[in-house]
Write a structure and sequence with these properties.
The structure is a single chain. This protein is of the alpha/beta class. The protein has two domains: 7-178, Rossmann fold; 187-369, Dehydroquinate synthase-like - alpha domain (Dehydroquinate synthase-like, alpha domain), CATH 1.20.1090.10. The chain has twelve helices and 13 strands. Strands 1-2-9-6-5-3-4 form a seven-stranded mixed beta sheet, sandwiched between helices. It is globular. The chain binds nicotinamide-adenine-dinucleotide and glycine. Glycine binds at residues 142, 146, 148, 246, 249-250. Nicotinamide-adenine-dinucleotide binds at residues 48, 50-51, 54, 77, 79, 82, 109-113, 115, 135-136, 138-139, 142-143, 146, 148, 158, 175, 178-179, 183, 186, 270-271.
Length: 375
């Protein structure tokens, strides 16, 4: 593969809000990555204290070929900072620098930065243009694509946000070279997710290529990102605002969000919680008679092979099931307090279901251990 060329482009088809996801090498500082974006006098790079020192200068150099003023805001790092205070730091800079409604925001970082920059773009002057430049695997295969933006509330994850689409997504595979291995594994959870919900051929490919993915083989990475984005683009193109189909992208997330909120944001990484949550959701699918034990075993082994946990933490020594159920009721899929789970109907196809509490309790009893600690 020519390392200087864009590897591929996936288009999200949303009528006049359609946009491209460009996947390739050296996209970050290539002025060609910016062609076709709106012109304006100013741009703002939204990043964090970890990513900005690695990549902001290169991006700024490219942006200066197009924008007269390029500002930078460095947010504190971590899921625990995905909150109002960090969001306000973005607004502070936008206002201090007298940014107008043509100012273009560039989200440079992982899913936390992308979700917050997107939400800021949706709100500032009731909406300014923004571009996603995801630098984690998780963000390249999932969070930068599809226009979900949000911050957390202490009572629930991603509960305050907006649907707001970027103008473009630039997935520069080279940025993954500096990603810690634990974060790479977290990203693999969302890659694995696409198989059971949509494409068992891709699941087979991920199984066969897990060693190459863990080694960050550029070819394997490029394929995983491209196929993940294609599946997500298809789903979002059919159901942008999650009135139905899009919910399947939350496979494993109902259990996962409960783990994240129950342990305190940042204890388990989002991808770790989703990985374990998928194993739990697969067990639920088995209990419902939709998949066989072999499928649950394969998924469990793949999650484990990615370096992710498959045993869930106990969140309350006195009433663990009750605590999980309470947390899972604060989920955007819940309706009138009834929890709804994404279950696998058959390998490669998913659906949303309400499931009796006692069946969920059985899965929790089989899945949780007090010994499971991450940090
Ligand atoms: P993250 O944004 O916290 O990034 C993980 C860590 O890696 C951070 O410490 C970050 O500073 C660091 N980092 C990022 N890029 C790096 C690089 N290239 N080199 C070295 N370090 C780097 O976590 P994440 O896993 O990217 O995203 C998780 C977030 O995404 C969660 O808040 C989750 O809710 C959200 N999410 C959103 C959607 C969506 O559709 N909007 C989908 C999935 C997840
Ligand atoms: N990650 C879930 C979604 O984008 O809908």
């Amino acid at each position: 593969m020519d390392a200087t060329r864009t590897h591929s482009t996936v288009t999200i088809d949303l009528g006049d809000r359609s946009y491209d996801i460009r996947i390739g090498h050296r996209l970050l500082d290539d002025p060609a990555s910016l062609e076709g974006l709106p012109t304006s006098t100013s741009a703002l790079i939204v990043s964090n204290v970890t990513v900005a020192p690695l990549y902001a200068a290169r991006l700024k150099t490219a942006l200066l070929t197009r924008y007269q003023h390029v500002h930078l805001v460095e947010l504190p790092d971590g899921e625990v900072h995905k909150d109002w205070a960090s969001l306000n730091l973005i607004f502070d800079v936008l206002l201090q620098q007298a940014c107008d409604r043509k100012t273009v925001l560039f989200a440079l970082g992982g899913g936390v930065v992308g979700d917050m920059a997107g939400f800021a773009a949706a709100c500032y002057m009731r909406g300014v243009p923004f571009v996603q430049i995801p630098t984690t695997l998780l963000a390249q295969v999932d969070s930068s694509v599809g226009g979900k933006t949000a911050i957390n509330h202490p009572l629930g994850k991603n509960m305050i946000g907006a649907f707001y689409q970027p103008l473009r997504v630039l997935c520069d595979i080279d940025t993954l070279a500096t990603l810690p291995q634990r974060e790479l594994s977290a990203g693999l959870a969302e890659v694995i997710k696409y198989g059971p919900i949509a494409d068992m051929g891709f699941f087979n490919w991920v199984e066969a290529n897990m060693p190459a993915l863990l080694d960050r083989s550029p070819q394997a990475m490029a394929h995983a990102i491209q196929r993940s984005c294609e599946i997500k683009a298809h789903v979002v193109g059919h159901d942008e605002r999650e009135s139905g189909l899009r919910a399947i992208l939350n496979f494993g997330h109902t259990f996962g969000h409960a783990i994240e909120a129950g342990l305190g944001y940042g204890q388990w990484l989002h991808g770790e919680a989703v990985g374990c949550g998928m194993v739990m959701a697969a067990r639920l699918s088995y209990a419902l008679g939709c998949v066989d034990a072999h499928f649950v075993q394969r998924l469990t082994e793949l999650v484990q092979a990615a370096g992710l946990p498959v045993v869930a933490p106990v969140l309350d020594e006195q009433d663990n099931v009750g605590r999980y159920l309470q947390l899972m009721q604060v989920d955007k899929k819940a309706e009138a307090g009834a929890i709804r789970f994404v279950v696998i109907n058959a390998p490669g196809s998913a659906d949303m279901r309400s499931v009796p509490d006692d069946m969920v309790g059985e899965v929790l009893r089989a899945s949780c251990s007090s010994d499971e600690k991450r940090v």
